[in-house]
Design a protein that fits this description.
This protein has 19 helices and eleven strands. It has about 475 residues and is an alpha+beta fold. It is globular, with a radius of gyration of 23 Å.
Length: about 475
């Protein structure tokens, strides 16, 4: 299971002169605008339903009221159980936000300093890594999800201390503070810091510090066997349109992700960060929205007045995808929870454009489905030669390596190995400085049985990222 999070951290607000007449006219305008927004949301979700590219719940809040909330698709396709607004979804790495908030709460209470060494709280941890570096993914710790020992029996690691022992045995990927590298392991260690300082379990802290104060009654941090009627089953839609579920991929939640929540509960969390001090005071909220960097050149109010800013937090894993979108100047919190693989990502821009620009752009088929249709019609050689033109002329934008990486794996998991190699190669061409592009390409070549090209790409990935234990192990077997 892969947990990941996107952070685009700018925020906004606006000052108004409230004259009676102006206020009256604005109220009329706001009512009409909200009606238009609701209708446009409905058009987007109706198109999602028509194309069958989304299953889950979308909720959007603006300045005091929920302007849209709707669920489509099935929480359990086999049992014909529909998604409802109360359906609980795995929110994956959005759980990291809860961990970060609790760390900032402890800092507010003078129980830690973000620049404390984590070795003060976790025995055997690096004495060069700080709490802040864990928050910022600059610690040098890696990702326990890629550890073969973890993969052999994920359910074995039900306590943070068990995962911590595993994590501390792994080599550091780089010197602390040297660079950014997304780290699930780092957030597990933050959970250990919380438990050490408070003397309570992570789940007890989560309940007492966040869930109960906000009235998040439908959020759960626990492991349950697959089939819980209140929880959505995750589905991976193969390129050929067939579905497989993620029941066998279920893991124990950790401070890095994996808890369950509803769209309404998650909106309560986002709204508190946007509007009040129930969780964090203004100083801590500024730290949160400033990527945990101190000495911000602006105040929280100034940050919230940035007309170009916004915050998009994402989490995902096979069969699940979640987004928490906070745009302070628009006074909006939007939650997208899906039990389709990558489905929230596929409609994020449509919803962002609607909120930020007032533009209605209907969603298109997912990038993977589109590329598959082109290959099916024109062939793999044509697609190879005209790839960039095909993408741009059909309105798709490749802005980061993860888009094609996820697309390539959809082909790979659907049994289209040659096609996945093409996509991973194009990804490496477009993002030549990203080690993961070569790691993924190496994996595709390995599945094809081309050990020579597999070794070449794993070697390149390892040269760019010496901490890639997976590449090391594969190369040892290939040599």
């Amino acid at each position: 299971m892969n947990f990941y999070i996107n952070l685009n951290l700018k925020t906004m607000n606006r000052n108004y002169i409230f004259l009676i007449k102006v206020c009256f006219l604005m109220c009329l305008f706001s009512s009409a605008a909200l009606t238009d927004v609701k209708e446009d949301f409905e058009k987007i979700i109706n198109e999602c339903e028509r194309l069958d590219i989304f299953s889950g719940t979308v909720l959007s809040y603006t300045d005091g009221s929920i302007v849209y909330e709707r669920s489509i698709g099935f929480a359990d396709r086999e049992k014909n159980i529909p998604n409802e607004n109360e359906t609980k979804h795995n929110i994956a790495s959005i759980g990291k936000l809860f961990t970060a908030v609790m760390i900032l709460q402890l800092a507010q209470e003078d129980k830690l300093d973000p620049d404390d060494k984590i070795s003060a709280y976790i025995k055997g941890a690096s004495d060069k890594v700080t709490v802040r570096q864990l928050l910022q993914h600059t610690s040098g710790y890696g990702d326990y999800l890629n550890n073969p020992e973890f993969s052999e029996n994920p359910l074995k690691y039900k306590e943070i201390k068990d995962l911590t022992e595993l994590i501390l045995k792994e080599p550091m990927k780089f010197a602390a503070g040297e660079k950014f590298s997304y780290s699930n392991s780092g957030y597990v260690l933050l959970g250990g810091v919380i438990e050490f300082i408070t003397g309570k379990s992570y789940s007890e802290n989560l309940l007492e510090r966040i869930l109960e104060p906000l009235g998040m009654k439908n959020s759960e941090y626990d492991y349950k066997e697959p089939g819980d009627i209140k929880r959505a089953v995750g589905y991976i839609k193969n390129i050929n349109g067939k579905f497989s579920d993620n029941r066998k991929l279920t893991e124990v939640p950790t401070p890095a992700g994996g808890m369950y929540s509803t769209a309404h509960d998650l909106y309560l969390f986002g709204r508190s960060l946007l509007e009040n001090n129930v969780l964090l005071n203004d100083e801590s909220r500024l730290l949160f929205f400033n990527e945990f960097t101190s000495n911000s050149p602006v105040s929280l109010q100034q940050m919230f007045s940035d007309p170009d800013g916004g915050n998009v937090y994402a989490g995902g894993s096979p069969g699940i995808n979640s987004l928490l979108m906070i745009f302070p100047q628009k006074k909006t919190v939007t939650v997208i929870l899906s039990n389709y693989d990558q489905a929230a990502f596929n409609i994020e821009k449509n919803i962002s454009d609607l909120i930020l620009k007032g533009e209605l752009n209907l969603p298109k088929p997912a990038l993977a489905e589109f590329i598959f249709s082109v290959i099916s019609e024109k062939g793999i050689d044509y697609t190879d030669k005209n790839f960039k033109t095909i993408i741009s002329e059909n309105g798709y934008v490749i802005s980061n390596d993860m888009q094609l990486n996820r697309t390539g794996y959809r082909f790979l998991k659907s049994g289209f190995t040659d096609e996945s190699i093409l996509i991973f190669k194009k990804n490496a061409e477009m993002f030549p400085d990203v080690a993961n592009c070569y790691d993924s390409l190496g994996e595709a070549y390995l599945l094809k049985g081309d050990k020579t090209n597999a070794a070449l790409n794993f070697k390149k990935a390892l040269e760019m990222d010496p901490g890639n234990e997976n590449a090391k192990k594969i190369l040892d077997k290939l040599n």
